[in-house]
Design brief:
Oligomer: single chain
Strand order of the largest sheet: 2-3-4-1-5
Number of strands: 7
Helix content: 40-55%
Strand content: 5-15%
């Protein structure tokens, strides 16, 4: 998963580096401690005169060498706390010298420095929720990486940016993505995580729930309600800005939808949330995909261009399809009936030209060369509907990344 650029060293960090150097010079070197961590008695001077000078020089050299090693150790530990994605094999702290143990004072300084750093880097207690809210990056991703979804691009960016810029939001933002599989709903949800949080989907401030995976058995719905609401509360306690993604929302049990209602309701002005948390719920659903495709097909047949299709063409049809559906309790839930869902966002069916762009992106993401002929061949492998018009890819852009394997040398 791509990561955003690391913030350059500002004046505060240069001050911190100075404090760091002072710390490591003040701390006892490894050689000044025994295996039990206690200071050893100083060695008696062997000789006077030049012997003392040589001993002092040797002591200074060993102290500087120890300070350098200790500095690297502290830096590795500190980096693992505030940049956990860099803390792999190459980021692990070097093995400590024989008899070396992290001094208690040094551990306390490390805790203080981490807390201080996180005070302006938006870290949670876990150190994993560095909030960046990169709206420029989100706008670029939606424009460049998302194909054929001009409505979703405009609505998602406007809704999320407007909400997160509110000084005191009185409710959570609830977005509901609707459309056929493979049209980009999960893709946009991932873009939100990547651009709002430095650690993307790995952030402790982001939670993903898949109905058939996390809540598969109706007989355990009471347990699921407890787990779901408990996870929401726990995340909100640790993060002042949270993102919850609920995939296959149309398959959520009605009681789970009801359990979500208090988290999406408006807060009374007389009892505002003291910490002003910002919470975004994103529901992903195939519900309404057929009516979206039908409306788009009729408009294209009537001579409209795809980019001319607006929310006015789709909004009433989509909401009616959701409310009238008998295969899902989503449209009959109080989330929908009480207008707690802020935006129903349609994802349009993808055409041949969009599938080619997805194929191109799949090659580029793996740093592979491609030809225009290869893109055409991959696009032709997909099944297109309706049978007569052959306009829309039945799977959107799903399985594209697997199909490029046929064209590798």
């Amino acid at each position: 998963m791509p990561r955003g650029p690391r913030r350059p060293l500002g004046p505060g960090l240069w001050l911190w580096l100075g404090l760091w150097l002072g710390l490591v010079l003040l701390l006892p070197p490894p050689g000044a401690q025994g295996h039990d961590g206690r200071a050893r008695p100083s060695d008696r001077a062997e000789e006077a005169g030049s012997g003392r000078a040589w001993t002092a020089f040797q002591g200074l050299r060993e102290r500087l060498r120890a300070a350098g090693a200790l500095s690297r150790r502290y830096w590795a530990l500190f980096r693992c706390r505030v940049w956990p994605e860099d803390c792999g094999e190459e980021g692990e702290a070097p093995a400590r010298p024989l008899g070396w143990s992290l001094p208690l004072l040094g551990q306390q300084y490390l805790d203080i420095l981490t807390t201080w750093y996180c005070s302006f880097q938006d870290c949670c207690d876990s150190g994993d929720c560095r909030i960046v809210n990169n709206f420029t990056g989100l706008e670029t991703d939606l424009r460049v990486r998302l194909h054929g979804q001009h409505l979703a691009r405009e609505l998602v960016l406007t809704a999320v940016r407007s909400y997160l810029e509110l000084p005191r939001p009185d409710k959570a933002l609830a977005l509901s993505f609707h459309g056929w599989s493979g049209t980009g709903k999960n893709f946009v949800a991932r873009m939100l995580a990547e651009n709002l949080y430095r650690d993307g989907l790995r952030s402790n401030c982001v939670q993903v729930f898949i109905a058939t995976l996390h809540f598969p058995h109706p007989k355990y719905v009471d347990l699921y309600k407890e787990q779901l609401t408990g996870q929401i509360r726990k995340t909100q306690e640790h993060c002042h800005q949270t993102l919850f993604i609920l995939d296959e929302a149309e398959k959520l049990h009605p009681e789970l939808l009801e359990a979500l209602r208090p988290h999406l309701e408006h807060q009374a002005p007389t009892n505002p949330r003291p910490e002003c948390p910002r919470t975004i719920f994103v529901f992903l659903s195939n519900l309404g995909g057929n009516i979206i495709n039908e409306v788009v097909l009729n408009l294209l047949k009537a001579g409209w261009s795809r980019e001319e299709i607006s929310m006015e063409h789709l909004k009433s049809h989509l909401q009616a399809e959701i409310v009238e559906s008998t295969d899902s309790g989503f449209g009959h839930s109080r989330l929908v009936k009480e207008n707690l869902i802020d935006f129903f966002i349609p994802f349009l069916p993808l055409e041949y030209r969009h599938v080619r762009l997805c194929a191109r992106d799949a090659f580029l993401s793996q740093e592979l060369l491609y030809t225009e002929e290869a893109l055409d061949e991959i696009a032709k492998m997909m099944v297109y509907v309706p049978k007569e018009e052959q306009l829309f890819s039945s799977q959107g852009c799903k399985s594209i990344s697997q199909r490029i394997n046929y064209f590798l040398p």
